[in-house]
C-alpha cells in the first residue's frame, strides 16, 4: 500500500517535515509539559519574578493531568484548559498570597540625585563665598554651594555638606 510505512502502519506524508511536525504536535504528552515547565523554570531562575515559576508549576500540573487524568478529558484541549486554569490560579495566588515572599528591590536612595549623595561629605571651598554663594570641591568634583545660616566661608576652608537645594549644596565650616 503506497504511503504506509512497512511493518509500522503509519501513514507517511510525502512532505517529511510536515509528517514529523504532525507526529510531534498531534497530541500533547507528559514530556511536552515537563519540558515546558523546565524551560519556564530555567528562565525564572534568571529573572526572579515568581511569575514564570507559577507558570512552570502550572505546566507540571497539566503534565500530571495528561498522565493521570481520564482519557476522555486528557486530550490536548483538556490539557490546555487545565494549564490555563492552573496558570491563572497560581499567578493570582503568587501575586496576592505570596507577595510578601517577593524581595522588594529598593533603589539606592541617592540614585539619580547626585546632590543628595553629597550630604555628609567633607570638602574644601575653592573660592571666597560672596553673598552666601560660592564653590566647593568634594572629591574630584567642583560644585556650586550656599553657606548655611550666614556662615562666612573663605577659600581653603574645610566644609561639610549639610543638605542640598536644587543644584547647590548647603555647607558649613567643618
From TrEMBL:
The keyword Amino-acid biosynthesis does not apply. InterPro entries: Membrane_assoc_protease, NA-bd_OB-fold, NfeD-like_C. It is a multi-pass membrane protein. GO terms for cellular component: plasma membrane. Its main location: membrane. The chain crosses the membrane at residues 24-43, 50-68, 80-98. Residues 117-173 form the NfeD-like C-terminal domain. It is found in: Membrane. The keyword Transmembrane applies. Keywords: Membrane, Transmembrane, Transmembrane helix. This is Nodulation efficiency protein D family protein.
Amino acid at each position: 500500500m503506497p504511503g504506509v510505512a512497512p511493518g509500522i502502519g503509519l501513514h507517511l506524508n510525502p512532505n517529511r517535515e510536515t509528517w514529523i511536525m504532525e507526529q510531534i504536535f498531534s497530541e500533547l504528552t507528559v514530556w511536552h509539559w515537563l519540558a515546558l515547565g523546565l524551560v519556564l523554570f530555567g528562565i525564572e531562575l534568571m529573572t526572579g519574578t515568581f511569575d514564570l515559576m507559577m507558570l512552570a508549576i502550572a505546566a507540571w500540573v497539566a503534565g500530571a493531568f495528561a498522565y493521570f487524568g481520564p482519557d476522555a478529558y486528557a486530550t490536548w484541549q483538556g490539557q490546555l484548559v487545565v494549564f490555563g486554569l492552573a496558570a491563572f490560579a497560581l499567578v493570582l495566588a503568587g501575586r496576592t498570597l505570596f507577595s510578601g515572599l517577593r524581595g522588594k528591590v529598593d533603589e539606592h536612595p541617592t540614585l539619580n540625585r547626585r546632590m543628595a549623595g553629597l550630604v555628609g561629605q567633607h570638602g574644601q571651598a575653592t573660592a571666597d563665598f560672596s553673598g552666601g554663594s560660592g564653590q566647593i570641591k568634594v572629591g574630584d568634583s567642583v560644585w556650586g554651594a550656599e553657606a548655611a545660616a550666614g556662615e562666612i566661608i573663605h577659600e581653603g576652608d574645610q566644609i561639610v555638606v549639610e543638605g542640598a537645594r536644587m543644584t547647590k549644596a548647603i555647607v558649613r565650616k567643618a
